[in-house]
Amino acid sequence: MKKIISTIIIAATYHSGLNAQKLSEEQLYRPNFHFTPKKGWMNDPNGLYYKDGVYNLFFQYYPDGNKWGPMHWGHATSKDFVKWEEEPIALYPDDLGYIFSGSAVVDKNNTSGFGDSKNNPVVAIYTYHNPNREKDGKIDVESQGIAYSLDNSKTWTKYSSNPVLKNPGIRDFRDPKVFWDAKRQQWVMVLAAQDRAHFYTSKNLKDWTFQSEFGKELGGHGGVWECPDLFSLKVEGSNEEKWVLIVNINPGGPNNGSAGQYFIGDFDGKTFKIDDLFTKQLQREKAVWLDWGKDNYASVSFDNVPQDKRIIIGWMSNWEYAQEVPTEAWRSSMTVAREVSLRKTKEGYILKNIPVAQLKQYQGKPITKKISLQSKNQLITKSEINLSRAVIDLDFKKMKEGNYTFALKNTLGEQVLFGIDNKTKELFTDRSKSGKTEFGKNYATPITKAPLNGIYGNAKLKLVLDKTSIEIFFNDGEKVLTEIFFPNENFSELTLSTDTNGSSLDFNAYQLNIK
């Protein structure tokens, strides 16, 4: 009884504080176009799929507080990956446990038998996390369950014989990503199992057979493996097909905290094996990262997207500080949706990711400038464009060995620094003077860095800017940095300084007209 009363008091205190915070928080920190829940805590994207003209985004959700709690599946929908509408909660905790991360598939052939004469089912596959067994110190805390919907996710029915995959004696056993393997007419599940990935197959989404494991001593192992994904992509400019395995890790990212890594290889329906070129790349780089910024975790892809495009979205935060960021009504947002493609070079593979093409539909008329760079350059002034909803394309020519530092500023003297160090051969971001920084662990230090392959003569950057985030895409997404920030006033101008001579910059800035 005491526990129930204290829970009610905590929830009441949380909700009573919303009104006082609402105005300043909404104005300063509610993103203009990145998805956030109206209230409560959000983390990993889950159950991503497309059906009947609608993209569905589910997410780890605790509606009754702004820190992690008993996990539900929240739900949002979009017709274009850009404008998201929050829907009612899809899945609630039950006697088997909290509803942890997972995926959703469109069961076009009704292999599960959940469909009827009019509707193919959408089937969600998720992890049950049993808090009672966790408290008792048990190992078998996590198992996999399924639920189905016949009305495109408006209502859900949990399978009466859950769990469909029991725990084999592994404490961290979660985050099932399932897809239809058309070549072998089977469902494939990749699952995070502590420090490796497990692969299972099924004909009906209910009965699963273990096939293999991968990764025990490969890639990054600074923390537990989570939220895997497996899909095939054609190599750019060829008919060669490769398989991509994404594995998220917490902690152990390239700039501390949580992050996503990937592996390139082949999959025969049972076993994933990295290829020879990627083996050499891994020996050289130790781990290969999807995003070098601190704020892109649990990126996974959508099922059933038209034209077989592979679109991913991630949680735009980091477990080092996510529960302490300076918002109260809600916590966390998602990255922009991104299309991924695979490039092959002599050195290895690059999983490129760029904003979805649909974002261009919201771009206004460009502000275009051609600039012969001086030591200090004013790129955007306060009156020209709203930098809390913008896309900026930057095209450098005749770059020299030296530093190119952008500053996103406000009138309070706060700033986010980022750019290209063409001497030390790296991209960087520095948010140590970005406003509110005294929260969590390692939020503002050290400077985030991403190594580059050499000194560049020409280079391109695409910036996607919202009130509290910057997403930097280098050379069409060959390197990406995603970072969040919390200024005390929205950023309103952009400058560029350099210690070089003779470089030029083509500059196109677009207002995003998203309401």
Salient structural properties:
515 residues; mainly beta; 6-stranded antiparallel sheet; 3 helices; globular; disordered N terminus
What does this structure look like?
With 515 residues, the protein is mostly beta strands. Residues 1-14 have low confidence and may be disordered. It is globular and about 70 Å long. 44% of the residues are buried. Strand 25 (403-409) and strand 26 (415-421) form a beta hairpin. It has helices at residues 2-29, 131-135, 276-285, and strands spanning 40-51, 54-62, 72-78, 85-91, 98-106, 122-129, 142-149, 157-158, 173-181, 186-193, 197-202, 209-214, 224-234, 241-250, 259-267, 272-274, 297-301, 311-315, 330-331, 338-344, 349-355, 367-372, 376-380, 389-397, 403-409, 415-421, 426-430, 448-451, 459-466, 469-474, 479-484, 493-498, 504-511. Helices cover 8% and strands 44% of the residues. The two termini are 45 Å apart.
The main sheet orders its strands as 22-33-24-29-30-31
Are there runs of 5+ residues with pLDDT below 50, and where? 1-14
User: Strand percentage, roughly?
Assistant: 35-45%
Distance between the termini: 45 Å
User: How would you sum up the global shape?
Assistant: globular
Main sheet record: 6 strands, antiparallel
Would you tell me the structural class of the helices and strands?
mainly beta
Mean pLDDT: 95
The total beta strand count reads 33
* Helix count from the secondary structure assignment: 3
Supply Rg. Answer: 23 Å
Helix content: under 10%
